Amino acid sequence: MKARAFSYFRAATIDQALHAHARAGDDARFIAGGQSLVPALSLRLQAPRLLIDITHIAELRGVRREGAFLRIGALTRHCEMLSEPLIAEFAPLLRAAAPFVAHPAIRNRGTFGGSVAHADPASEFPAMTLALGAEIEIVGPSGSRRVKADDFFVDLFETALQPGELITAVFVPLFKADQRFAFDELARRRGDYALVGCGMLATCTGDRIDDIRISFFSVGNTPTRVKGTEAALIGSSLGAERIAAAQAALEGDLAPPEGDEVPPAMRLHLARVLLGRMLGRLGAGA
Amino acid sequence: MIGFDESLLDDADETVRVRFTINGRKVACEVAPRETLVDCLRNVLELTGTHAGCEMGACGACLVQLDGRAVHACLMFTVQADGARIDTIEGLTESGVIADLQAEFHRRNALQCGFCTPGMLVNAHELLSQVTRPSREDIRDALSGNYCRCTGYEAIVDAIDAVAKARIESGGPT
Fold it and tell me: I need a surface site. Which of A70, A160, A167, B1 has the fewest CB within 10 A?
């Protein structure tokens, strides 16, 4: 239960952090909140030569509007997602998801960028970047780039991040007056990983859904957008029949894996139940 | 050059000097980078009120305050805390800020073996400094990351609830 020996470097700038990573021959890990990384090191699931602390890099901090987006600095802590007024106003889906992220003391240290980079398929925030159509800003040895959330999550704990790259910020399209959102999850205990969870963002004209993005977590190797289900909803209003059609479509979108304590059929059932409840609320909450 | 000394890579287990303020006192100690804060507090500084339970952030027995917020001392390395202000259960006890919580825990038998109690108190202290009138559900939610294997939580929630009410009656937090 103790980490293998490593060297520690506290970077003051992004350049310092990238330089240190390269000098360690990429046998290094960036650490921010460390709420997933420290246990992984303690269990020796990971054992880098060098740990690069990025929490003191000012460029990675702050939440602000930038054009049509809200720029959320990678070091924004989960507790700030709850308290920051700009999040509540322009990214209310993230505000709704934040109380479900782990326990209060974890939220005091864990960071938004770290959660997205870690890409735990059972985590709330990575899945919400999908529902929001967010863009992830990445910096690395070959410069800076922005990747759409749809292209970011590749496989289990695998993302578009290449060795030596780190997330600088997540850009979330500003929430608009004609949009509605919903978040919910089913867990055995508050703060535990969800058995299944979901976030959705709809653009509406009156009660008609013009566009909707729905993303599930805890249903497979990555957070998962359910495009067939979305298609079943676009162009209609949310009556009981339409919701039932969406629930039926979910079966074609999700294939929960075998081999853990929750059988795939049960997970799919819970996903259907959750979807039905959330669409009902979305329809009622004009 | 830009701040990174490559000789660092060859000194993986060599100790480094860390300075912080613990319970109001400035402290410097030599730690290996891989040493967690809970191990440093207990083994180096002999502040054994912070308990090491699961050592993976699940049980809440190791909670301390870092720059005024409750964090797991098992989920950070001591080197990360360089320059920070840390308050452990010993400091919170001596300063008297949790005296009413401690008395109420005692009065209501909100502990049996006491292993979880420091973490419970740190978390309760944080909750009551942020929310003046927590509901019982708020209290349970705040304690969702603290395991108690003896009492079954009811008395713990009662104690925190009673202190929250008593603080309101006496005109705000102590």
Answer: B1
- In this predicted model, what pLDDT tens digit does every residue of A29-53 receive, in sequence order? 999 999 999 999 999 999 999 999 9
Ordered by where they begin, the domains of chain B are: 6-92 (3.10.20.30), 96-169 (1.10.150.120)
Domain final residue pick, A172, A198, A226: A172
Number of domains observed in the structure of chain A: 3
**Nearest-by-CA chain A residue for B52:** A1
CB A116 within 8 A of CB A72: no
Mean pLDDT across chain A: 96
Q: Are residues A152 and A113 in the same domain?
A: yes
Which of A19, A29, A103 to mutate against chain B (most B CBs within 10 Å)? A103
In the block, which residue shows the tokens 């978040």? A183
Contact A9 B32 (CB under 8 A): no
Question: Distance from CA of residue A172 to its chain's centroid?
Answer: 12
Cβ distance A49 to B71 less than 8 Å, yes or no, reads: no
pLDDT at A258: 87
Q: Is ipTM over 0.90?
A: yes
Whether residues A46 and A63 fall in one domain: no
A63, A39: one domain: no
Q: Using alpha carbons only, give the angle A228, A230, A234 rounded to the nearest 5 degrees.
A: 120
- Residues A195, A107 share a domain: no
- Residue A89 pLDDT exceeds 50: yes
Strands A50-53 and A7-10: parallel
What is the span of the domain harbouring residue A234?
A: 180-284
Tokens of A276: 């039905």
Q: Which residue of B has its CA nearest to A193?
A: B58
**Shortest alpha-carbon distance between residue B54 and chain A (Å):** 9
User: Could you tell me if A132 and A36 lie in one domain?
Assistant: no
Q: CA-nearest residue of chain A to B67?
A: A108
Residue B6 clears pLDDT 90, i.e. is over it: no
Is A20 close to B12, i.e. CB distance below 8 A? no
A45 inside 8 A of chain B by CB: no
The verdict on residue A1 lying in a domain is no
Mutate: best of B72, B78, B121, B160, partner A, most A CBs <10 A: B72
Query: Cβ–Cβ of A12/B3 closer than 8 Å?
Result: yes
User: Do residues A14 and A139 make contact, with C-beta atoms less than 8 angstroms apart?
Assistant: yes
What's the CATH number where A25 sits?
3.30.43.10
